[in-house]
Amino acid sequence: MGTDLSLDPVRIGVVSISDRASSGVYEDKGIPALQDWLGRALHNPITWETRLIPDDQETISATLRTLVDEQACDLVLTTGGTGPAPRDVTPEATLAVADKVMPGFGEQMRAISLNFVPTAILSRQVAVIRGRALIINLPGQPKSIAETLQGLPQALPPVHGIFAAVPYCIDLIGGPYLETDATLCKAFRPKNAQRPARQG
Ligand SMILES: Nc1ncnc2c1ncn2[C@@H]1O[C@H](COP(=O)(O)OP(=O)(O)OP(=O)(O)O)[C@@H](O)[C@H]1O
Ligand SMILES: Nc1nc2c(c(=O)[nH]1)N[C@H]1C(S)=C(S)[C@@H](COP(=O)(O)O)O[C@H]1N2
């Protein structure tokens, strides 16, 4: 099933960080890939805030502050700028706006990505809490978006994507109750945090 209008609405910021896509050298595939995966994985009605920006640290931090403080996003996902190159500054820009650092997301994403590419360890991606929002960095390769969010749930043993932990994290910071499509990503919550299953 798709969107269920009876569920909590969620505001999601998607930020593509790329010098070349933002200057028109190539077409941005980061925002469409993020919206495609999240739109399929979440049943909640989504309001999007999209931004395509260059790899500039202050621009990235300012964008994240605006999305959380002014646009009231519950969740912000960035793509790009997490590697070791001189212009890759997304983790620094994200840490600069953090109230809390959530190291498990970066650790788990690098572990998941090793199932896809040996260069997974080159991503310095981080996740942080700012106010009542969760901000997560993803690598720039558009295919890495589904790889890290979804993992390989059908593999034996399964590789859990990081999105499984996102709904409960958002519960804990006071955000909307997110419901996911279990075939893409089964959200994990402790029993006492689960709402009764929806009818129909
Ligand atoms: N927003 C994007 N849209 C389409 N492809 C992208 C995007 N960002 C990255 N890629 C692809 O993934 C590769 C690795 O991404 P990375 O973020 O390292 O780019 P980059 O080499 O730093 O350059 P730029 O920041 O100008 O995209 C790029 O060379 C490009 O092929
Ligand atoms: N899942 C996944 N993770 C990945 C990749 C990928 O293709 N898939 N690319 C790696 C590579 S080649 C680099 S350089 C780093 C950083 O990428 P970024 O600078 O585009 O953010 O992410 C790594 N993590």
TrEMBL record:
SUPFAM superfamilies assigned to the protein according to its UniProt record, in alphabetical order: Molybdenum cofactor biosynthesis proteins
Keywords in alphabetical order: ATP-binding, Molybdenum cofactor biosynthesis, Nucleotide-binding, Nucleotidyltransferase, Transferase
Reactions mediated catalytically: molybdopterin + ATP + H(+) = adenylyl-molybdopterin + diphosphate
Any GO molecular function: ATP binding
Domain MoaB/Mog residues, every copy: 13-159
PANTHER family, alphabetized: MOLYBDENUM COFACTOR BIOSYNTHESIS, MOLYBDOPTERIN MOLYBDOTRANSFERASE
The protein's name: Molybdopterin adenylyltransferase
Species of origin: Ideonella livida
Phylogenetic classification of the source organism: Bacteria, Pseudomonadati, Pseudomonadota, Betaproteobacteria, Burkholderiales
